[in-house]
TrEMBL record:
Family: Belongs to the GMC oxidoreductase family.
InterPro entries the UniProt entry points to: FAD/NAD-bd_sf, Glucose_Oxidase_domain_2, GMC_OxRdtase, GMC_OxRdtase_N, GMC_OxRtase_C
UniProt protein name: Alcohol oxidase
SUPFAM superfamilies, alphabetized: FAD-linked reductases, C-terminal domain, FAD/NAD(P)-binding domain
GO MF annotation terms: flavin adenine dinucleotide binding; oxidoreductase activity, acting on CH-OH group of donors
Domain (Glucose-methanol-choline oxidoreductase N-terminal): residue spans on this chain: 299-313
Source taxon at top rank: Eukaryota
Matches recorded under Pfam families: GMC_oxred_C (PF05199), GMC_oxred_N (PF00732)
Catalytic residue list: 516, 559
Sorted UniProt keywords: FAD, Flavoprotein, Glycoprotein, Oxidoreductase, Signal
Taxonomic placement: Eukaryota, Fungi, Dikarya, Basidiomycota, Agaricomycotina
Binding site for FAD: 102, 110-125, 259
Cofactors demanded by this protein: FAD
Amino acid sequence: MRPSTRLAGFLVGVCASSVQALDYVIVGGGTAGLVVANRLTANPSVSVMVLEAGGDGLGNINISDPTLIGAAWGTQVDWQFPTEPLLFDGNRTLGNAPRGKVLGGSSAINVRNLRLKCIVFFGDVFDRGDDREYDEWLALGNTGWNAQSIMAAGEKAEHFFAPNATDDIDYTLTDHGLSGNIATSYNSAAPPIHDDIISSVVNAGGRETADNDGGYVNGIAHVTNARLPSNNTRSTSATGYYFPYSNRTNFQVTLNVVVTKILWSSTASGSAVASGVEYVDTDGTTHTINATTVILSAGTWGSPPILERSGVGNATFLESLGIESVIDLPGVGENLQEQIMAPMEWSLNTSLSLNVVTPFLLNMESLQTTVGSENLATLESLLDVQPPNLSDALYNAHKALYNKSAPWVEEYISVSTPASGPSVLTWIPVNLHPLSRGSVHIVSTNGTEYPSIQYNLFQSPFDTYVLAAAAQRIQSIVSTPPISNWITGQISPSAGVTSIEDLQAFALANVAVTNHIIGTALMGPLEDGGVVDASLKVYGTKNVYVIDASVVPIEPAAHLQATVYAVAERAAALLTSTSD
Ligand SMILES: Cc1cc2nc3c(=O)[nH]c(=O)nc-3n(C[C@H](O)[C@H](O)[C@H](O)COP(=O)(O)OP(=O)(O)OC[C@H]3O[C@@H](n4cnc5c(N)ncnc54)[C@H](O)[C@@H]3O)c2cc1C
Ligand SMILES: *[C@@H]1O[C@H](CO)[C@@H](O)[C@H](O)[C@H]1NC(C)=O
Ligand SMILES: *[C@@H]1O[C@H](CO)[C@@H](O)[C@H](O)[C@H]1NC(C)=O
Ligand SMILES: *[C@@H]1O[C@H](CO)[C@@H](O)[C@H](O)[C@H]1NC(C)=O
Ligand SMILES: *[C@@H]1O[C@H](CO)[C@@H](O)[C@H](O)[C@H]1NC(C)=O
Ligand SMILES: *[C@@H]1O[C@H](CO)[C@@H](O)[C@H](O)[C@H]1NC(C)=O
Ligand SMILES: *[C@@H]1O[C@H](CO)[C@@H](O)[C@H](O)[C@H]1NC(C)=O
Ligand SMILES: *[C@@H]1O[C@H](CO)[C@@H](O)[C@H](O)[C@H]1NC(C)=O
Ligand SMILES: *[C@@H]1O[C@H](CO)[C@@H](O)[C@H](O)[C@H]1NC(C)=O
Ligand SMILES: *[C@@H]1O[C@H](CO)[C@@H](O)[C@H](O)[C@H]1NC(C)=O
Ligand SMILES: *[C@@H]1O[C@H](CO)[C@@H](O)[C@H](O)[C@H]1NC(C)=O
Ligand SMILES: *[C@@H]1O[C@H](CO)[C@@H](O)[C@H](O)[C@H]1NC(C)=O
């Protein structure tokens, strides 16, 4: 095979007879796709072609410099997915949602940019969830996926750089992977106000912990970023899993091509066989490529549309678009889940010189601790109502998390300074496990048209109440000494907004998404809306897999990428152990 990494359509070229068959075609060179491609091509006799819609991103400072907060958004490396109006929130729209369209995928653009009073910066965070959450994957029927196996796969991806002693940041070395492909580290040093934030959390009944990355997520800790400390550059799946390996002749990448659908050599019921995929290049020319195995790694909004255009999905729906059903799989595109938040701000008596200060993440064990005992009875009664679109299996998994006192709310805490005026304390409650479920579906057979994305946020009143009750509890922590002594005023919500009713209205009006979308090609039993089995193979196929965030069944009490790396590492290990 030619050592080309850039030649579009080379396998369908002039001398097909001299070209050896391709083993794997991977759709999407994003966070998960490049991990799988890297692990497969470690065996020189296995050939892989990655088809990526974006470019290589090399030299793009908006990607490499994580302090250019959100600069990549709205540029050519961002898909800018349009989203539908929020049916349960006054039909407001949240506008276009960012997703990476470049080698590295969303790991290349995942810096959060909240333009409140200050530009608050929570980006390239790298953290794992709680063992109690990962064990629910197994309880849902996903053999082999539990805390032990997911944590091990996650640590395999991580290369942790411990902070220097002068940085004054606590950590626990044994909570981290030390020789993986993704560099993780902390950003700037912590100023004295941090000690008072920690003290108030402890005085209000929370816990201080050195580290939340070891599977027990309970307490306030500094944020770990996917960043190489030597030159403060972002570590992406492209810098970690592709560029250093691009000389592998069996690791090919074709850029700037959009995959439209899977091609089938057999559509026999229950055992459809893919022969490859169809894609279009920037000229609009259609190509096909054959491979023994097809892996979709196009992301939570990218993979389901490809399945649907290939006849895999809700047969009634597909037939309404004139698409012949190959596999009736109603879970495709359903179960869309997103973690939601409602940012809060206070003004401080001081103007810190640092523009951005090392932030904290705070998780507190049990819903009672995070929402306050006075709100618990109402929340329990709301949790007792199973919302539409949430399967019995997923509903029971959430009740089990509740019974296990697993963390339900995560709080992002940072201090930053606007262009003028005093510093601002930002404290953001995040509902980690909302009960509402949305969907992503194609709107036509056009292979490059955007799908329809309906988040369905706040379909369950439980979700609204969690945010409001957590906001009320945060107000009580912030009024606890010693941090209370720094506070000069409440910015958002405004002073006086303290009742649960008012805070629910605040949450509805100010909700922001975390971009931690999962679930649209759910891993789980077929009868529970599953799209892939525990090997991540699509039900009813012989050789089609989905390996990306869309298979994740339960959100971690964390940002998502570390879990996506874990899924990809484990899926790759399963593929190589069966093919070796
Ligand atoms: C703005 C933002 C901020 C975030 N912040 C954080 C954070 O701080 N910490 C954290 O842990 N997580 C964060 N996340 C979430 C995390 O980045 C994602 O969950 C994760 O990267 C998703 O990985 P994936 O492999 O599923 O998809 P992606 O990484 O998005 O990869 C999908 C790839 O497929 C390609 N593709 C899609 N469709 C096609 C097609 N038809 N043909 C060819 N190629 C295609 C895309 O271009 C892309 O390269 C954030 C995400 C975003 C968008
Ligand atoms: C970087 O981001 C800025 C701001 O969004 C944009 O104007 C610029 O074109 C981007 N650069 C590249 C190389 O995309
Ligand atoms: C939102 O739009 C839908 C569909 O058009 C409509 O039925 C509903 O009444 C609207 N809701 C609000 C709150 O405006
Ligand atoms: C520790 O300090 C050295 C010297 O300033 C620097 O090169 C290195 O990147 C720092 N390490 C971390 C993890 O910040
Ligand atoms: C940062 O350092 C790494 C490792 O030395 C190097 O590969 C990378 O090119 C550097 N990035 C930039 C933008 O300087
Ligand atoms: C690729 O480059 C690395 C580092 O230079 C080298 O160790 C490896 O042998 C090379 N692999 C191939 C297939 O050329
Ligand atoms: C590619 O797959 C198609 C079936 O979709 C088949 O007709 C064709 O012969 C295959 N080509 C090669 C070179 O194997
Ligand atoms: C399948 O699609 C049809 C038509 O859109 C819809 O009425 C039905 O509810 C869907 N079925 C499931 C299980 O989602
Ligand atoms: C999901 O919720 C929406 C909004 O309430 C509803 O229209 C749709 O029918 C639901 N889907 C299913 C499969 O229940
Ligand atoms: C949770 O605990 C309650 C009370 O003990 C019990 O009735 C319920 O079955 C449990 N639910 C799950 C999903 O474990
Ligand atoms: C398909 O959708 C794309 C993007 O919306 C559009 O530019 C193109 O014209 C459409 N093609 C057809 C044949 O309608
Ligand atoms: C702000 O308040 C804190 C806590 O009372 C105090 O330690 C600090 O000196 C004050 N800073 C300024 C600039 O007044």
